[in-house]
Amino acid sequence: MEIAKKRIGIVGGGQLGKMMILEAKRLGLYITVLDPAADCPSSSICDKLIVANLNDLSGYTELSKHADVITYEWENISVPALEKLEKGGHIIYPSVSSLRTIQNKYVQNAALKKAGIPVPKFALVTNTEEIREYGKPENFGYPLMLKTTSGGYDGKGVAPVKTEDDVDDAFHQLGSGIKELMVEEFVDFQKEISVIACRGIKGEKAVYPVAENTHTNTILDTTVVPADISEEASNKAKEIADKVMSVFEGVGTFCTEMFLAKDGEIYVNEVAPRPHNSGHYTIEGCFANQFENHIRAILGLPFGDTGLICPAVMVNLLGESDGKAKLLGLEEAYNDPNVQVHIYGKSESKVGRKMGHYTVVGESAKDTIKRALELKKIVRIIGE
Amino acid sequence: MEIAKKRIGIVGGGQLGKMMILEAKRLGLYITVLDPAADCPSSSICDKLIVANLNDLSGYTELSKHADVITYEWENISVPALEKLEKGGHIIYPSVSSLRTIQNKYVQNAALKKAGIPVPKFALVTNTEEIREYGKPENFGYPLMLKTTSGGYDGKGVAPVKTEDDVDDAFHQLGSGIKELMVEEFVDFQKEISVIACRGIKGEKAVYPVAENTHTNTILDTTVVPADISEEASNKAKEIADKVMSVFEGVGTFCTEMFLAKDGEIYVNEVAPRPHNSGHYTIEGCFANQFENHIRAILGLPFGDTGLICPAVMVNLLGESDGKAKLLGLEEAYNDPNVQVHIYGKSESKVGRKMGHYTVVGESAKDTIKRALELKKIVRIIGE
């Protein structure tokens, strides 16, 4: 197949990589994955798995031998290694320069701000005195967020500072200044929302509907689509997501997480240069899902329809305890014919580890949310 | 994962097996495939591939070691081998007895007839005199169909006998009586239709909408759903498909191909105990597709919704010439955002070989058919 001549390399073999591969395989594509774990979720469906540390150049070099285009499912990877490949003529989407910008939260925010995209106020800090300075009411005030500028995900690398009393603990928690730190103004939000969008090689774009997210302990818990927000807010959020892609000039899928503040303003919280957990609803909710359109983007193919077929609710399945993973309640969940359960194939459950998710669709958003929330007591993953 | 403890074995690793695996992988299941070809379409995404002739007992025995439940994507496989496994306590769905019945077209027709399901008139024949006898106007008359009772697919094993002059040629074409032969009355049909239906372990059923099929040179060319037939005919077809599953007492997916005769009667042409080419539209057209519901059936899980989301048209991509397979027109096809192309991953194109398919969805059936047919000139697979 001519299309199969474009072999794809994916850095990272977690669930996002696995779901990319499931779509790529429909087109008969050859996929090589680079991951440190031999039993990563992508391992059982990729054509070739390279097991190597994601900080080692050697793994990336090996990956490039088996791929005509390289992408990634995860942003905490080696920019120097990818840069070397890019300089050697290898194609990497999204580009290494956009990855470099996004990888550092401070640089990311600065780039967004420069482009006129609203972000919470932010500043680099190196010690507790500076944090206290930003905590003053005439400055950012409390609460404020202390963050490492790189390496964070799922709430890791973030420490909320509710009052001045938390400053020392938060600073200590994030490494006492060994890692680069920044403070961010706390946005008093009414909703956390996100938009998945894709950008093609010729600059063409496809934007998905606005999703409304609920986080528990800083990990995504539930995504509801359409978001229960005004049409004005929805349009604004989509415009921002669209603009974000132009800022980073990337090819591929981008997720823009935003706060809809109580005053109606929208601020960008974070951008991910890849398919995102809050876009899993697109598998059941849209004709072409985020993983498929990501594959189309990096192959230079036009995008599939991103319109919402019907209301959809996605709920993450996090490990409830440590041990050999055991799924509970699948049969009962499937008594509802409009439920799909996705299991990533991680053999070990850990508390809070993303083990799978389920999606519920329906005719009315209200009823769909109700059914999805009821299932939380039923579909569970425990360790035993 | 507890669900992953149910390892699935699939006899046959063609495109139907591949599409089953794509669904099974969403649930993190472990899949072993038995196929004679090391590079079969399923090879790149199954966990384990056993390369062996489908007539050899050894391959089946090996498969059974890696599977808690065995299914098949293809009916021309070894019943004695499967029977031996079934006697040894292995679970095979659909059951070997239903496979045995369905494998022999004469026995299949007899079972359907006995259950009161309308089939064209049929009879075993052993020589040209008997065929001529059935060709007489007071008997079946001409045209009539000469068929091998087993081993046929995609028009192979079928020879139309238009007039008495064709009898000798048709008899010779099908092996001059070495294989068991039957004659079947020709049904003057207005439409060829089919219904995919699934039956669960507890006997519960899920029936998909009626599909309208067009064959070219006895190979499926196009499937349109919903079928452009009366509601009465549609209900009748679905009732027949439902009844067919009870006749065979199988667990899994069954496709009932039917003729809607010009006089309004519906006759069963053929039953396949597996997901079917005419059910590929369910991937885009339904919340739960035929492959997923097949997996649910054999795992004892309740079925996902089989309702039609929107009109869908499936077109097969057959090899146009022999040689290394080359796909043409993908980019142009994807200029329509409501098209999905599926490439099975067969490296060699052969004239008439099923290499892939595409599905077009839309709001109106008429417009969707128009777009799907226009694409036939664009999306093509050639050998080079």
Throw out a few tags for this protein.
homodimer; alpha+beta
Number of strands of chain A: 19
Please give the share of residues in helix of chain A: 25-40%
Which two chains have the most extensive interface, and how many residues on each? A-B, 47 and 47 residues
Count up the helices of chain A.
13
Overall spatial form of chain A: globular
Biggest β-sheet strands, sense, barrel of chain A? 8 strands, antiparallel
pLDDT below 50 for ≥5 consecutive residues: which ranges of chain A?
Answer: none
Mean pLDDT of chain A: 95
**What Rg of chain A is obtained from the alpha carbons, in whole angstroms?**
21 Å
Task: Indicate the proportion of strand residues of chain A.
Answer: 25-35%
Going by helix content, strand content and strand pairing, the class of chain A is: alpha+beta
**What distance lies between the first and last C-alpha atoms of chain A, to the nearest angstrom?**
45 Å
Spatial strand order of the main sheet of chain A: 13-12-9-10-11-14-18-16
Multimeric status of the protein? homodimer
